């Protein structure tokens, strides 16, 4: 039977630690979880929330970020909802991780890290807010994307 | 996040502890820039006591490597946390800067 948990915080950088701690509190002792997978989920949530805070609510009064966690027997489903500007994941630039330092751009790793750390990612912009859904399978031996 | 400085031989060790995220990374950037502006351009950033680092921390370290090299020095890392190692590997950081597993090795690398 799945367990569900929710945390809502204001879209401030000071809230990032609360989201990471929430993940740790509810996921660290799950069957199939290990320190590498836990870091993956914390990283993906941190990067997604940072994007919402820095870009989603840019030019707007900071709204809220709702994190819903569903813990099923072999997977973790994280849903992040915000009410700021939406974005198009497929239009985000892919960082060149082979580039020499002189050619490195300053940013661009956030979405890339989310995709690398989680097994599935979906994003929907609806009238009820923007929703990013992240899934991590716990039965896989590899902590990263296959 | 906390940073502590220590000068040893030909290098300056920046020991970082806690979390390096988008909130705290600017403090690390300031600490690195401060050292370079004081002429300490051979930097060893010790991440052993860091529990979590996001792309914001990575961006700061990349900026630190660029700044140190532009002043004739270098920035090298110490990391033993598997999660942070994965962040470094995903970004190709190992192709850009040297990463060591102990402070002695990192300090010795500056000769």
What does this structure look like?
The complex is a heterodimer of chains A (146) and B (111). Chain A is α+β, with helices and mostly antiparallel strands. Chain A has a single domain, classed as Heat Shock Protein 90 (2-Layer Sandwich). Chain A has 3 helices and 5 strands. A 5-stranded antiparallel β-sheet of chain A has the order 1-2-3-5-4, with helices on one face. In chain A, strand 2 and strand 3 form a beta hairpin. Chain A is globular and about 45 Å long. Chain A starts with a strand and ends in a 9-residue tail after the last strand. Chain B is an alpha/beta fold and 111 residues long. Chain B has one domain: STAS domain (Transcription Regulator spoIIAA, 2-Layer Sandwich), CATH 3.30.750. Helix content of chain B is 40%, strand content 32%. Chain B has 4 helices and 5 strands; from the N terminus they run E-E-H-E-H-E-H-E-H. In chain B, helix 1 runs parallel beside helix 2. The mean pLDDT of chain B is 96. The interface between A and B is medium-sized, with 31 and 25 residues.
Number of helices of chain B: 4
**SS-derived structural category of chain B:** alpha/beta
How would you sum up the major sheet of chain A?
5 strands, antiparallel
Radius of gyration of chain A: 15 Å
In round numbers, the mean pLDDT of chain A is: 90
Helical segment count of chain A: 3
Q: Which consecutive residue ranges of chain B, at least 5 long each, have pLDDT under 50?
A: none
| Residue fraction in strands of chain B | 25-35%
Helix content of chain A: 25-40%
Relative helix content of chain B? 25-40%
The tally of strands of chain A reads 5
Secondary structure category of chain A: alpha+beta
Note poorly predicted spans of chain A.
none
């Amino acid at each position: 039977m799945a367990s569900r948990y929710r945390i809502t915080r204001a879209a401030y950088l000071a809230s990032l630690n609360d989201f990471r701690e929430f993940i740790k509190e509810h996921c660290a002792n799950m069957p199939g979880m290990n320190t590498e997978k836990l870091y993956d989920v914390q990283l993906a949530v941190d990067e997604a929330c940072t994007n919402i805070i820095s870009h989603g609510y840019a030019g707007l009064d900071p709204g809220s970020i709702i994190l819903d966690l569903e813990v099923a027997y072999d997977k973790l489903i994280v849903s992040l909802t915000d009410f700021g500007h939406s974005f198009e994941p497929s239009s985000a630039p892919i960082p060149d991780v082979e580039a020499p330092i002189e050619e490195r751009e300053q940013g661009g790793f956030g979405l890339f890290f989310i995709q690398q750390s989680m097994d599935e990612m979906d994003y929907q912009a609806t009238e009820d807010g923007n929703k990013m859904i992240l899934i991590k399978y716990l039965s896989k031996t590899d902590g990263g994307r296959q | 996040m906390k940073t502590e400085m220590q000068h040893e031989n030909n290098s300056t060790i920046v020991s970082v502890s806690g979390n390096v995220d988008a909130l705290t990374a600017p403090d690390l950037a300031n600490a690195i820039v401060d050292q370079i502006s004081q002429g300490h351009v051979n930097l060893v950033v010790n991440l052993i006591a860091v529990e979590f680092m996001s792309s914001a921390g990575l961006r700061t370290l990349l900026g630190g490597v660029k700044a140190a090299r532009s002043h004739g020095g270098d920035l090298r890392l110490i990391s033993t946390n598997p999660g942070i190692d994965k962040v470094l590997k995903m970004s190709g950081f190992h192709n850009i800067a040297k990463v060591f597993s102990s402070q002695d090795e990192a300090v010795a690398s500056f000769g």
